[in-house]
Amino acid sequence: MPETLSRLLAKWRSWRQLSSLERRLFLPTWALLGLARLAIAMVPFRRLVAHLGAPLGSQTRNTLPTPAQAARAEQVGRAVRLAARYTPWDSLCQVQAIVARYWLGLFGIPYVLNYGLRRNQEGELHAHAWVCVGPVFVTGGDGYAAFTVVGSFGGDDANKPPPSDCTG
Questions:
Q1: Is 39 exposed, middle or buried, given 0-12, 13-18 or 19+ CB atoms closer than 10 A?
Q2: Looking at residue 50, what DSSP letter applies?
Q3: What is the distance between the alpha carbons of residues 29 and 40, in angstroms, rounded to a whole number?
Q4: pLDDT for the residue numbered 164
Q5: Do 105 and 145 form a contact (C-beta atoms < 8 A)?
Q6: In the chain, what's the furthest Cα-to-Cα distance?
Q7: Residue 134 falls within a domain, yes or no?
Q8: Pair 81, 139: CB distance under 8 Å
Q9: CA distances (Å), origin 28, targets 2, 80, 95
Q10: Is 76 exposed, middle or buried (0-12, 13-18, 19+ CB in 10 A)?
Q11: Backbone angles phi, psi at 92, to 5 degrees
């Protein structure tokens, strides 16, 4: 079987293994990633902040989701990460976090969107954004522990002290 055909079959099998929700979210998420990228490029952060959720300061907070909310958050995260792999533009952590925050807010799932900073060995400052729902890293979970939280935004019951390790 030609390599291209076998790759297409593998992609089709992967697509079929996604949940119904993840398949339904793919195209709108892809479009939202573009809108979020455009907003980050064109809208000053001080105006964008109003759409991220309630400001929680730099104190780490977390949420206490129901099992159903945690499962839905995992599906949202998979849909966002999948769509981000297929955008022709960069859909890095902040873009993914904003889109995940949108879906979680739409589904009424409590979330915390964190912004963090760290210095590398050369002293350069690096930023990262990640979204948590309880112990679930919806987006940006890779390497979050190396960052110091400098700002958090939450939806619904995000003002609880952290009950899990999804902090910064």
A1: middle
A2: G
A3: 16
A4: 47
A5: no
A6: 56
A7: yes
A8: yes
A9: 32, 10, 14
A10: buried
A11: -85, -165
Residue 100: inside a domain, yes or no? yes
Q: Which amino acid is at 97?
A: A
Give the separation between CA 4 and CA 120, rounded to whole angstroms: 40
CA distance 53 to 157: 11
Q: Give the Å distances, CA to CA, from 107 to 6, 30, 143, 146, 164.
A: 37, 18, 27, 30, 22
User: What does the alpha-carbon distance between residue 85 and residue 78 come to, in Å, rounded to a whole number?
Assistant: 11
Six token digits for residue 123:
């002293």
Evaluate if residue 107 carries a pLDDT over 80: yes
**Residue type at 63?**
T
Residue 7 lies in a domain: no
The total domain count for the chain is 1
pLDDT digits 0-9 by tens, 29-45: 999 999 999 999 999 99
Contacting residues for 51 by C-beta, under 8 A, at least 6 apart: 98
4 is a domain residue:
no
The residue type at 45: F
Express each pLDDT in 48-78 by its tens digit: 999 999 999 887 677 889 999 999 999 999 9
